[in-house]
Amino acid sequence: MRYDLFISGYGGQGVLLAGNLLSYGAIHEGKNVSFFPSYGVEKRGGAAMCTIVFSDGDTGSPVVGLPSVAIILNQLSWEKYASRVKQGGICLVNSSLVNMEDLVLDERELLAIPMNQISIDLGDVRMLNMVACGAYCEATGALAPESLKEALKNALPERNHRLIPANSKAIDAGVAAVSQLRKT
Amino acid sequence: MSRYEKKFVKGNEAVAMAAIEAGVECYFGYPITPQSDIPEYLSRELPKRGGTFIQAESEIGAINMVLGASAAGMRAMTSSSGPGISLKQEGISYMSGSELPCVIVDVMRQGPGLGGIDASQADYHQATKGGGHGGYRIIVLAPNSVQEMYDLTMLAFDLSDQYRIPAMVLADSVLGQMKESIVPNQRPVAELPIKDWAVRGTGGAVQNVVKSLYLGDGEMEKFHWKMHARYQELADRDSRWEEYQTADAELIVTAFGCTSRIARTAVDMARSEGFKVGLMRPVTLFPFPKKAYRELSAKCKRWLTIELSTGQMVDDVRLSVFRDADVDFYGRPPGAGSLPTPEELFARIKNNFKDLMI
Amino acid sequence: MKQVFAKPASLKDVQTHFCPGCHHGSFHRLVAEAMDRFGIAEQTIGCASVGCSVFLYAYFNIDVVESPHGRAPAVATGVKRARPDRIVFTYQGDGDLAAIGTSEIIHAANRGEKITVIFVNNTTYGMTGGQMAPTTMPGQITSTSPEGRNVDNDGKPFKMAELLSNLDGVAFSARVAVNNPKNVMQAKKAIKTAFRYQVENKGFAFIEALAACPTNWGMNPMAANERVGNEMIPYFPLGIFKNKENL
User: Fold this and answer.
1) CB contact under 8 A, B52 and C81
2) Contact B211 C68 (CB under 8 A)
């Protein structure tokens, strides 16, 4: 299988860390991974995006036109990229910051998760990217949440390893949010 | 942890790791996006291993330091992008004229001028036709994965030493910035000539002079023919390319670098819908694998060249294939948001089958 | 019979291409004498520049690498860093060092590269046929300043020895001339010091050598020699501008 995923938000939302974490999670499961980041010229606050492709075989193109899955973290990304999600694909949206009224996504599963709110409830809004990663695991089944928790050791710098338990909880909260949504 | 264990790294880091594995002794550079990870990595790691790292006053300073270190017999390298590579052309010309080996890494960005930092392939001509004055060529290797950023950087050192021609690794900002798992391979064993031409200050009977000035009657002409023969030998022995699904192909897509990765997925899309499409990817851009193109074009007459420019490599493709082959071109000149998608390339592939579809 | 005069061993026994009355030959000799004095010719690597001084390898019995125009200090940096145990020097003209190569010389000096630089200032581009140099004197007529150097248009001549002496990386900086026996003796001493600094690993040493260019000045050798004393030295004073040993 070849999986692809597009993550978009603004600088500071942890887009690249989320991409790295999912990459390491996939490596943990023995996949080949291509992780392609792109961002605006500003060092802070500009647009931040990345594409991740993982596969048992060749990853092929690091560029994906119509992603199977997108994680949309802010309004601008919603307006620019949500409609690109492939038919039959999944769009995970941070409903804390995105007003989804203007756009109707046909033939795609829309999962609205208040990522900011969930991470604030867990004690730190900066963990919203972890909530997103957990949500991705549950929504797609492409990666096990346990692999991500293992991968935190690789994705986080040594000095932040004390934050692994809190981040693991945030991943679980993302998993729970999706399973809750799909029940209703 | 073994140093040869699998690692998840950026393309630029892979270049720096490979340089160290290849035994680079001197690195001279100047910061420019999107390749600054290379000097950053080497400034940390090279001095620890007894090597020299200098951030030069300019790209011109850097390439001339490479010239000096190479003339003294060392493995020396530099890296840069667009505007910086333009400044280095003077030094590259002198090194070519002095038959000095070195490795230059060009992580292409947009131009002309300041351009921008997104991926480009518009420096193909500059790299492969001799970007400076005097009618020389350099070895140009085009990786298309982080693994190849590593492997081809090591190869560049060996080929350059072997032929006494500067070697360039021609990458782009996608390859420089993307991360993939690589196996940091061990330096291959290569039989390399002894650098008995180097200036060493060892005095004695033989005076070694490294120079590009030839004033005697016929001297310079002789030099040109000598280098011409060497380029031919390089083409005969070290042209490299990769073919994918070409055996039964009715259309062959050809692209290099990051574009070849996008094209490969487009080829897979086409195959899954029953179109017989293959991919031909040159790994050496100089020497361009002309023979391989010619042989393929004996069987397959439809070609599609894809580049991040208005068309440069396509000239070499057209010169290489048989005359009755039809070469279509699809280009996206560099710029923010101009990377083609596999879906887009698939559409162009299908377009080439239009007359066959009822 | 007692031999009282001989060619330094570091020089080849060949005729130079320099014009009659040119001072390059004298400075070549003084550099060779310094090499002989320290017995370093066999460990020395010269970095030739572009201009009349390009033929270094034709006259010295040493290994030489030719540098692009102005880049000799960068090339020498590469050579010296690659082979720190060798003696490395550049030999550059004024167009080479003080115009196209200002960036390279200033940064090599500022890094305190442990090299010796011989900078020959003859106030003109010699090899290309007498164009205005960064060191051309105010009012001096050249092929590209037909009315004489206009300082309002072109600025004043660079005083490189003084300029570089201000950099912390520079250990020794002096200006010398060979227009009379007294100055030759002082030049010989200064050039020896500049090489001794490298032998003793003391840092960057710079010699500005005032030279006559009779051909491009349109003078006979005698008149050109006199011009060095009458016009150049008053503007470009001789002396030592930096000597780390005396600090």
Assistant:
1) yes
2) no
Q: How large is the average pLDDT for residues A152-158?
A: 96
Q: Which of C75, C83, C88 is nearest residue B67 as measured by Cβ atoms? A: C75
What is the domain count for chain C? 1
In CATH, what number is assigned to the domain containing residue C220? 3.40.50.970
Position B89 pLDDT exceeds 80: yes
Facing residue for B211 by CB, picked from C57, C81, C82: C57
* Domain locations along chain B: 7-238, 241-356
Please name the chains neighbouring B, where neighbouring means 3+ C-beta pairs under 8 angstroms: A, C
CA trace torsion C180, C182, C186, C189 (10° rounding): 110
Please answer whether residues B238 and B284 qualify as being in contact, where contact means their C-beta atoms are separated by less than 8 angstroms: yes
Å between B211 CA and nearest CA of chain A: 43
Nearest to A61 among B6, B118, B261 (CB): B261
Do the domains B7-238 and B241-356 sit in the same CATH topology, yes or no?
yes
On the question of pLDDT at B358 being above 80, the answer is: no
Q: How far apart are CA C186 and CA C189, in angstroms?
A: 5
Average confidence (pLDDT) over C148-170? 97
C-beta of residue B284 within 8 angstroms of C-beta of residue B241: yes
Instruction: Work out the minimum CA distance from B341 to partner chain A, whole angstroms.
Output: 5
Subunit contact C43:B202, Cβ cutoff 8 A: yes
Cβ–Cβ of B208/C67 closer than 8 Å?
A: no
In a domain, C184, yes or no: yes
B19-60 pLDDT, tens digit each: 999 999 999 999 999 999 999 999 999 999 999 999 999 999
Question: Which range marks the domain in which residue A142 is found?
Answer: 2-183
* Boundaries of domain holding C158: 24-246
Instruction: Give the neighbours of chain C: at least 3 Cβ pairs within 8 Å.
Output: B
Considering CB atoms only, which of C42, C47, C66 is closest to B203? C42
ipTM of the complex: 0.92
- Using the Cβ of B76 and the Cβ atoms of chain C, whether some distance falls under 8 Å is answered with yes
Torsion of the alpha carbons at B180, B186, B189 and B192, rounded to the nearest 10:
70
The CATH fold of domain B7-238? Rossmann fold (3.40.50)
Task: Specify the number of domains making up chain A.
Answer: 1
Question: Beta-carbon neighbour count of residue A63 at 10 Å?
Answer: 25
Question: Quick one: what percent of chain A has pLDDT higher than 70?
Answer: 96
Q: What is the CATH number of the domain that holds A168?
A: 3.40.920.10
Q: Give the Cα separation of C106 and C99 in Å (integer).
A: 11
Residue type, B195: K
| pLDDT (tens digit per residue) in C16-33 | 999 999 999 999 999 999
Given an 8 Å threshold on Cβ–Cβ distance, is A35 in contact with B343? no
Q: What residue of B is the nearest CA neighbor of A154?
A: B8
pLDDT tens profile A44-78? 567 899 999 999 999 999 999 999 999 999 999 99
CATH, range B241-356 = 3.40.50.920
- C182 found inside a domain: yes
Residue C56 located in a structural domain: yes
Residue written as token pair 């499409």: B277
Residue with tokens 């002409």: B221
**DSSP structure string for A95-108:** TTT---TT---TTS
Query: What's the average model confidence in pLDDT over C89-109?
Result: 97
